[in-house]
């Protein structure tokens, strides 16, 4: 199946209130153009270097999302154009994003990434760490970042019940934070969860942003 056919199949499977982030990491500009020509406008990359190489070669109305772990010293390379950073996992990183956004005269939208999977290698905050971040004096003073919701990755397993439980956990974190800390902020509304292998479960459990790569572009090398 072509990229356009894969996208059409996904659009059929994804409800209108859920946005699709086409994860183009490791894929060439040519494949991204194919998806763009099929109407896709939101693309996700997980490495800053790859993103900054591709971005100037592609149409300017693309909304670029950073979905992978972000190092503080790389924020400056994407601050000008990034639409949403899914992977904020520390106050220190958020401080740097705030500083670089201010230099560009922007307010950068961010999601707090939570550690919901069993694997130890996956990045992300615990609920307690997130609450500490949100309640910190430093965070309160930040004017150039906006927290729009949460993100998480489920365990890579065949066992659907584990995946579903982890997505339910992330949904619970979202609703608790919404009630406790963001009840006056209509912009706090995103739950980024679900990839090629588990997006259907994620949507059933309340996802608003699915991040899908291989089901669009084919397997990565
Ligand atoms: C690679 C990646 C995806 C997409 O994975 P697929 O299984 O190819 O859909 C989603 N989210 C993150 C954070 C990724 O790194």
Q: What topology does this entry show?
A:
Blueprint (H helix, E strand, L loop, with lengths): L2 H11 L5 E5 L5 H9 L4 E4 L2 H7 L8 E4 L8 H4 L5 E5 L2 H14 L3 E7 L12 H9 L1 H5 L3 E8 L7 H21 L9 E3 L6 H6 L4 E4 L1 H4 L4
Bound molecules: pyridoxal-5'-phosphate (PLP).
Summarize the structure in words.
The chain is α/β, with parallel strands linked by helices. It has one domain (3-217): Alanine racemase (TIM Barrel), CATH 3.20.20. The protein is built from ten helices and eight strands. The chain has an eight-stranded parallel β-sheet with strand order 7-6-5-4-3-2-1-8. The structure holds pyridoxal-5'-phosphate.
TL;DR?
With 221 residues, this protein is an alpha/beta fold. The protein has 10 helices and 8 strands. Strands 7-6-5-4-3-2-1-8 form an 8-stranded parallel β-sheet.
* Ligands: pyridoxal-5'-phosphate
* Count of the separate structural domains: 1
Taken in chain order, the helices and strands follow as HEHEHEHEHEHHEHEHEH
End-to-end Cα distance, whole Å, is 18 Å
Largest sheet: 8 strands, parallel
Architecture, according to CATH? Alpha-Beta Barrel
For the structure shown, list the relevant keywords.
single chain; 221 residues; alpha/beta; TIM Barrel; eight-stranded parallel β-sheet; binds pyridoxal-5'-phosphate
């Amino acid at each position: 199946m072509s990229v356009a056919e894969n996208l059409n199949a996904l659009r059929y499977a994804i409800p209108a209130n859920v946005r699709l982030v086409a994860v183009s990491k490791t894929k060439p500009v040519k494949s991204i153009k194919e998806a763009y020509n099929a109407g896709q406008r939101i693309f996700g990359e997980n490495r800053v270097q790859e993103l900054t190489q591709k971005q100037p070669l592609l149409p300017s109305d693309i909304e670029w999302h950073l979905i992978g772990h972000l190092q503080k010293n790389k924020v400056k390379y994407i601050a000008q154009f990034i639409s949403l950073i899914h992977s904020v996992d520390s106050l220190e990183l958020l401080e740097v994003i705030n500083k670089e956004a201010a230099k560009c005269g922007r307010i950068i939208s961010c999601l707090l990434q939570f550690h919901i999977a069993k694997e130890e290698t996956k990045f992300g905050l615990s609920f307690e760490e997130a609450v500490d971040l949100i309640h910190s004096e430093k965070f309160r003073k930040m004017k150039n970042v906006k927290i729009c919701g949460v993100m998480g990755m489920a365990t890579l397993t065949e066992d659907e019940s584990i995946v579903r439980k982890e997505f339910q956990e992330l949904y619970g974190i979202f609703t608790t934070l919404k009630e406790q800390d963001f009840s006056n902020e209509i912009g706090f509304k995103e739950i980024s969860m679900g990839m090629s292998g588990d997006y259907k479960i994620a949507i059933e459990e309340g996802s608003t942003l699915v991040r899908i790569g291989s089901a669009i572009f084919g397997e990565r090398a």
